[in-house]
Amino acid sequence: MSSLAQTVMHSLDNVVQTAKIRDLSKDFVEATSNDGLTTDHGVKVSDTDNWLKVSDGTHAGPSLLEDQIAREKIHRFDHERIPERVVHARGAGAHGYFKVYDNSATKWTAAGVLTDPSRTTPVFLRFSTVQGSKGSADTVRDVRGFAVKFYTDEGNWDLVGNDIPVFFIQDAMKFPDIVHAVKPEPHNEIPQGQSAHNNFWDFVGLTPESAHMIMWVMSDRGIPRSYRMMQGFGVNTYTLINAEGKRVFVKFHFIPELGVHSLIWDEALKINGQDPDFHRKDLADAIGAGAYPKWIFAIQVIEEADEHKFDFDILDATKVWPQSLIPLHNIGELVLNRVVDEFFTEVEQVAFCTSHVVPGIGFSDDPLLQGRNFSYFDTQITRLGVNWEQIPINRPVCPVMNHHRDGARQHRIHRSEINYFPNRHNAGHPVSPSQGGYAEAMAGVQGMKQRVRGVKFQEHFNQAQLFVNSMTPIEKQHLIQAISFELSHVEDPVVYETYTKLLNNIDFELAKTVAQKVNGVIPDKPGRSNHGQKDATLSQFYYTPKEPSIVTRRVAFLVSDGFNILEVEAVRAALVSAKATTWIIGPRRGKIYADGESIGTGAGIMADHHFEGQRSTLFDAIYVPSGSHAEALASNGRAIHWIREAFGHCKAIAAVGTAAATVKYAINLPEVDIVNTLDTDEVVTSYGVVTTGKYNMKSVARDVLEIS
Ligand code: HDE
C-alpha cells in the first residue's frame, strides 16, 4: 500500500486524461536533475544557503540588504499563505469524471452534462469539514462538504453540496449567525473542530428551524468512516429546464457504491489524535490503489404544477423530499480516479460558486440558495482575488470570451482594442439560447416587498421526528449518546435546559434520556404527539450494498514471534485478492519470526508497525493467527488492548487455533463464542469472528465488515 506521498508522486506516472487534466498539464512544472535553481526573474542562483555578508572569512559579519536573492526567497515565503475559507477550511480533493447512463433526463433538462451518454465530463470534488480551521482533524463530528466542479462543454457547473440533505437555517441572512455560533467562541478561540460548546447549542436552542439538521449532524452521519462512504446532496432546490423551456424542480443526490458507513464516537475521538489526516489519506490511498471511489448520481424531480402539493415547502432547505413521496431517478455516476499533484494549487485554490450553472440547470426561489448565489463569488474575491476563475483548477475547459478586464492577477492578454459591447466588430457578442446562450426559464412571481418566511417554513419538527422514527435502534442509541456528549460540554444551564426542552418536540424518549444524562429538563409527557411516520431511506443502513464489499478495508494481522506464517500468507493473499489492505502489526517494526524459525536468522515477515505505532482504531478488522506466539500476545498489554478495543468498537476479529484463547482472554467475556477455524475459505467468507449470542457483530456493528 503506498503512502500518501508515494501516491501523489505516482499520480503523474498514471495520468488519467480528461479534458481538464490536459488543460491543467499546460501548467505542470516538474523539477529534474537537469534543472538549475533560478530566481523568479529567471537568473541562475549559485548559493541558496548563505545570505550575502560582510565577513573576514572566519567570522560571520552583518548580512546585507543588497542580497536580492535572499530577499526574494524570504519575501516569497512571507506571502505563501492566503486566507483560509470562512467555513469548510479543512478539506481534501480529487479529480475524476462524470457520465450519464442514457438520455432519460432529456424530458427535464437540456443540459448536455445530464443527458448525453457519450460525454465524459471531468470533475473535481472537494470534501471538507465545516467548523475547524485548515489544520484541524478529519474525524470530528461535523457536516462534510461535498463540492463538485463539473467542467462541462458549456462551462463550469458547481454543485456545492454536503453529506447531509438538509441545513441548519432557512434564510441565507442567518448564515453569519450560525457560523459565528458554531465556530470557536470569540473570547478564547475555543473549541477547535467541535460543536460541543455553549454558543452553538445556545443558537440552535433558540433557532428551532435547525432541529432537523441537528438530528442529522448528531447521527452517525456526523462521523463518516471515509469520504468514500458518504452520500452527497445538493441540499437546495434547483430547477431543470428542457429544450422547450419547461421547468421542473430538482434535488441532486450522490449515493456511494460502498454504502454509507460511520465511525463510532470513541473511534472518532481517538483517530483525531492518532491520525488527524485519516480521511485525507484514505482518499489518496484508495485512488492510489486503483479502488476508485464511485457514486451513483440521482435526481428527484417535482413538476412545477405540484409545487404546493406537499405539507412542507419544497423550497425549504431544512426539509428533505421523502423518497416515499418523490422517487430517486438514478441517471449517472461519478468516479474519482486521480489524486492531486499539488495540494495548494488544486485543493486550496479550487473555488466553488453555487451561481455557476450551465444551460438546462437553474435556480429556484429557495431563500438559502438565493443568498448562497451571492456569497460564494464574493468570498472568492477575498480569498483568491477577482480573477480567481483564471486559476488553472478553476478555469473552464471551454472557451471564455468576454469584456471583463484588469483586476489583480489578470493573466489573460486580450489582443484587441475592444473591451465593450456593442462594438463595430460585433466581437464578444451575446449568443442566442438556440445557439447555446444561457436562458432563464420564465417564471411568474407576484407579491409585496416584505421580510417574511413562507407559511410552511414555520413548521420545524415533523421531519426531525420522521428522521428519528426512521432510525434503527443502534442509530437511535448513537444519536442519544452524541447529543448527550455535546450537551455535557455545554456549561451554561440555560443553554442545556433550553435544548433538552426543545428535544421533547421531536421525540419523548430521546428528550427524556438525554435530559437525564445531562441534568436537563426531564419531560413527563411528549411535547407533541408523534406522527409515527417512517421512511426507510433515511437510515444509513438502507444504502448498504446488496453485495457488501471489503474493498479498501484495513485489516491488521496481530503477530508476535512464533506466529503461523502459512496461515498469515494464505489469509493475506485472500484478503488482498478481495482488494482489502492488510497490515502486519507486531511487537516491533521489523522482522517478526514465524513458528519454527530461529529468532534473528529466519525469513520472518516484516511488521508494518509496532503495537504502539498504530492503534486498533485505524483498522476495520483484526486477524490473530494461530501459533506459539499466542502466549506472548496474551502477556503483552498493548496487544491485549488492541483486541479489547477492537471488540469494544464492534470490529470483526478473526482468531484461529491457539489465538482463540488469547482473544477470549483479552475480551474477558466468557459467553462470547469464538469461531475457531483453520479453513481460510471459511474465514474469508464468513464474519470469521466473534459471531454469536449477545455480542453478535452483525447486529451491533456500526460498520458491518463482511469478509467475503
Ligand atoms: Fe456554504 N459557503 N454557505 N453551504 N459551503 C462556503 O464559500 C454559504 C451552505 C458548502 O470546498 C463559503 O468558498 C452561505 C449549504 C461547501 O471550497 C461561503 C450559506 C451548503 C463549501 C459559503 C451556505 C453549503 C461551502 C466559504 C447559507 C450545502 C466548501 C468558502 C445560505 C449545500 C466549498 C467558500 C469548498 C463554502 C456561504 C450554506 C456547502 C462563505 C451564505 C446549505 C461544501 O461562501
Automatic annotation (TrEMBL):
User: What Pfam families does the entry give?
Assistant: Catalase (PF00199), Catalase-rel (PF06628), Catalase_C (PF18011)
Q: Name one GO molecular function term.
A: catalase activity
Question: Where does the signal peptide begin and end?
Answer: none
* Domain Catalase core residues, every copy: 38-429
Enzyme Commission number(s) from the entry: 1.11.1.6
As its record notes, the protein acts as a catalyst of: 2 H2O2 = O2 + 2 H2O
User: What residues sit in the active site?
Assistant: 88, 162
Query: What top-level branch of life does the organism fall under?
Result: Eukaryota
CC per GO annotation? cytosol
What is an annotated GO biological process for this record, any one? hydrogen peroxide catabolic process
Q: Could you say which cofactors this protein requires?
A: heme
UniProt keywords, alphabetically = Heme, Hydrogen peroxide, Iron, Metal-binding, Oxidoreductase, Peroxidase
What's this chain's function?
Occurs in almost all aerobically respiring organisms and serves to protect cells from the toxic effects of hydrogen peroxide.
Task: Family membership, please give it.
Answer: Belongs to the catalase family.
Protein name as it appears in the record: Catalase
Give the organism, scientific name: Crepidotus variabilis
